[in-house]
Amino acid sequence: MSDDLRQSLATELGTDLARAIEAMTSEQPKLNLASGEMPGPGPRTTWRQCFSATKGRAWLTADTSTWISLGDRTLKAAGIEDGDAETSKSTFVEILGQAFSMLARSLSGRTGVEWNCTEGGETPDPTEPIAWTSVGLDFADGAASRLFIAFDAALFQSLAPGPPAQEEAPAPQRALAAPTFKSPLLERSRTLELLLDVELPVSVSFGRAQLPLKDVIKLTTGSIVELNRTISEPVEVIVNNCVIARGEVVVVEGNFGVRIQQVISREERLRTLY
């Protein structure tokens, strides 16, 4: 199969991968490709993707540390600092799914046949001889990732031009449905952008108390209700009935205010507010 076609497909998938990363992190990794390089012998993770329009398959492999670092970069962009290795790998799988879906959409337009991502998952390296294309992603902060992409002969054959078709009345063209690979993290990020200007009620809690009904009935002007918090304890800042911070009471131009002393993690805030 033509090296040009293999290079073209690898470039397209690499570009889609960079676009998916940009959508999730707002970073724009620079793409560079090299033919003839082979994956190293270290611990690697390999993903195989099949498509509905063909029996052909595509593979992407990289050092496992590369999967983790790209996933970790995405999690940090979402404010999640303490993701473990498996969470980071799963996040990169979402990025990979977005990239393969973009490729399938492009192939649908190129061939006039609907392509969708079907079976995909981690797999051992392919046993048949295939040619790898090295794809590099270089980030502005100096970080660099190296991945390897390959396609099998069946996929290339499905893209080869067939024999000239006999002339006949053209059939109405059906609009091709865009293949989808839903990413919870990406969808959450897009939706969150739409909500950033929404105003939320903010309140401050000095403390709480529970009283029997008979004591509530006895409350009059001058009565004192003892709360469950001492004077030295910080007050709670509450948004949508969720505590997001704690601090001390201050006076700002004649109004009460709160100087924040403790803020719960951004991950926890997103989890409680979103």
Q: In this structure, how is the largest beta sheet organized?
A: 6 strands, antiparallel
CATH hierarchy: architecture of the largest domain? 3-Layer(aba) Sandwich
Say which CATH homologous superfamily of the largest domain is assigned.
Answer: CheC-like
Number of folding domains?
2
The string of secondary-structure elements, in order, is HEEEHHEEEHHEHEEEH
Which CATH top level class of the largest domain fits? Alpha Beta
| Quaternary structure annotation | single chain
Q: In terms of per-residue confidence, which ranges show pLDDT below 50 for 5 or more consecutive residues?
A: none
Q: Into which percentage range does the β-strand content fall?
A: 25-35%
CA gyration radius, whole angstroms = 28 Å
Please work out how many helical segments DSSP would assign: 7
Beta strands, count: 10
Strand order of the largest sheet: 1-5-6-3-2-4
The assigned structural class equals alpha+beta
Q: Taking all residues together, what is the mean pLDDT?
A: 80
CATH topology of the largest domain: Chemotaxis protein chec
Helix content: 25-40%
Report, as a whole number of angstroms, the end-to-end distance: 49 Å
- Structural shape: elongated
In words, what does this structure look like?
The chain is an alpha+beta fold and 274 residues long. It is 35% helix and 26% strand. It has 2 domains: 3-160 and 177-185, Chemotaxis protein chec; 199-273, Surface presentation of antigens (SPOA). It is elongated and about 90 Å long.
Summary of the model, kept short:
The chain has 274 residues and is an alpha+beta fold.
